[in-house]
Amino acid sequence: MGRVAVRRPVAAVAALVLVVEAVGIVFLNLVLGLVVDDQAMSLAGLAPHAMSVSTWIAGALFGAYLLLCAAVLLRTALTDKAPAGFFRILLISAAVVHGLLGAATVGLVGWLAFLFMMLVLGALVWTLVSYGEGRPAAEETPAAAS
After folding, report:
1. Of the four, 14, 64, 65, 146, which is 20 to 30 A from 56 by CA?
2. How large is the C-alpha radius of gyration of the chain?
3. Distance CA 73, CA 76 (A)
4. Beta partners for 43?
């Protein structure tokens, strides 16, 4: 009862956090693109405008990825059914990304950012583990019974 009662709110909170994170990532990439454009910085002869547009595209793609993960988590919380197939792999990839970003942020940003990334990682892993693989319980077969 306890594990089942907690898994839906954890999935819902994880979805909410991923939506906030997606907005933050898109905003951060928007600001970084504007800074590169205003400074007229160049890297290895690449045009500043190309770098700023690339930053905006990367922010939009990563934000869309996080929003898709949030939608999967929200569906999981509302229907109380485990994500399966592609959507399960999507959530596993989000957990891996948060683990890697957490490792990078501890040195670049600080321990508070690391803590945030680990909390998101924990919510993703908790959701994946508490829902299992989404397969129905296997019937006991005569071969397994003997």
Report:
1. 14
2. 20
3. 5
4. 46
Residue 28: the pLDDT is 94
Give the position of tokens 């970003």.
Answer: 101
> Does pTM top 0.85 for this prediction?
no
Helix (H, G, I), strand (E, B) or coil at 138: coil
Question: Who's near 16: CB < 8 A, 6+ residues apart?
Answer: 70
Tell me if 128 sits within 8 A of 95, measured CB to CB.
yes
Sheet strands (E) in 3-118:
none
Beta-strand ranges (E) seen in the chain are: none
The position carrying tokens 């898109």 is 26
Between CA 23 and CA 31, with CA 25 as vertex, the angle to 5 degrees is 100
Over the stretch 34-46, which tens digit does the pLDDT of each residue have? 988 888 767 788 8
Do 46 and 96 contact (CB within 8 A), yes or no? no
Query: Other CB atoms closer than 10 Å to residue 133's CB: what's the count?
Result: 9
Q: Which long-range contacts (CB under 8 A, 24 or more apart) does 23-26 make?
A: 23/63, 25/59, 25/62, 25/63, 25/66, 26/59, 26/60, 26/62, 26/63
pLDDT at 78: 93
Q: What is the DSSP letter of 47?
A: -
